[in-house]
Target: Probable peptidoglycan glycosyltransferase FtsW
Amino acid sequence: MMLQALLNKTKGDRWIWLIIILLSLISVMAVYSATGTLAYKKGEAVEKLLLTKHLIFVLLGIGMIYIAHLLDYRYYAGISKVLMIVTIPLLFYTLIFGTNLNDASRWVKIPVIGLTFQTSDLAKLALITFLARMLTKKQENIKDVKESFIPIMGSVCVVFVLIALANLSTALMLFGVSILLLIIGRISIKQIAIVCAGGFILLMFVFFLGPRRKTYMSRINSFMHPEMQHSDKTFQADQAKIALATGGVFGKGPGNSTQRNFLPHPYSDFIFAIIIEEWGTVGGIVIMILYLVLLYRCIKIVTRAPKAFGALLAAGLSFSLTIQAFANMAVAVGLGPVTGVPLPLVSMGGTSMIFTSVAFGIILSVSRDVEENAKLTSKEEKTNNKIIVGEILAMA
Model:
C-alpha cells in the first residue's frame, strides 16, 4: 500500500524515470565490479565497500530526485539567488583552502561528517538555475547591454574563471551550456560572439598562466602526439584502450574485468571503459542510447513547457547532463584528452551523485508542471465542448 501511494505521487516523464532506474542499476553493477581491487587493497570486502557507500548514495540520490520533483520548479528561481551568493565565495575558498587531490584544489571537506565534495558540482547547478532566472526576467529588454548582457555575462565569466583555475574541463562544458542557454534566451548573435571571444581570452589565460598549466599542456600534448603513447603520461588512456580492445562485441561478462586492476579510478572517471570491457560494444551502445533518449525526452519537455523559466531550466540542466556524459565516454574511448569528469548517475561519487540527482529532480518538476498544464487544458476543452453542445441542443 505504501509503495502504491508513493507511485501515485510520482509525477513527470515516465521515460526519464525509467532511464534513472536503469542507470542506477547499471551503476550498482559496474561499481560493484570496478571497486574489487580497491576493496582488496583496503582489506575490505567488496560488498561492504559498496553497501556502505555507493549503494547508500544511489538510494539517497533517488530520494533526492523524488523530493526535488515534488517541489514546484518556480521556487528554484528564488533558490538560485541564494545558491549564487553561496557558490562564488565557496569557489574562492576552494582555490585557496580546498583539499588537494590529484594536484588540484577542487574539493572542500564537510565538517563533522568528513566527506569531501567538488564545489564545481554546486556551481553548475547554481549557474544554470540563475541563468534561467535572469534570462526569463530580462526578456523585455534582452538586447540591452547594460540592463541584461553585462549582469548575465558577469556571473558566467566569474564562475567560469573560478572553476577553470582548478578544473578546466568542467568549466568549458559549463561555458558551452551557458552559450546554448543564451541562444535559447534570445541574446543577440553579436553579443554571443563577444562572449565567445571573451571566453577564448579567459581560456588562454587559464591554459598558459593558470596554476595547472603544466598538467593541461601535458594532457593535450599526450593526446595530440601519438609518438608519446605507452609513456607514463598516457598510462590511463592506454589502459582504457586495452579494456575496449579486449571487451569485443559482447564483453567478458559482468565481474570479469582485468583492467580494473591497472586502470586508475576505474569506478569513476573511466567506468565506461570497464562497462565496455565487461558488457562489450553492445553495452556501451546501450548506455549511449539511454543518454540520447534522455536528451530527446528533455527537449520534448522544453518545447511543451508553458513558461520560459521552466523551458530554460530544463534545457540547461539536460544539456549539462548529456554533454558531461558524452565527454566522459569520449575520454574513455580515446576521442579526447584525459579529464576528471564522471559519468552522470553511473560513476561512483557521493556528493556528485546528489547534485546530479537534484538536477534530474528539477527536470522532472518541470515535466510534472507540463503534465498538469496539459490536463487542465484538456479539461477546459471538454467543458467548452459540453457548453457548445448544450447551446446547439437548446437552439434546436
About this structure: Residues 10-70+229-369 form one domain. The first helix runs from residue 2 to 9. The mean pLDDT is 82. The first strand starts at residue 99 and ends at 101.
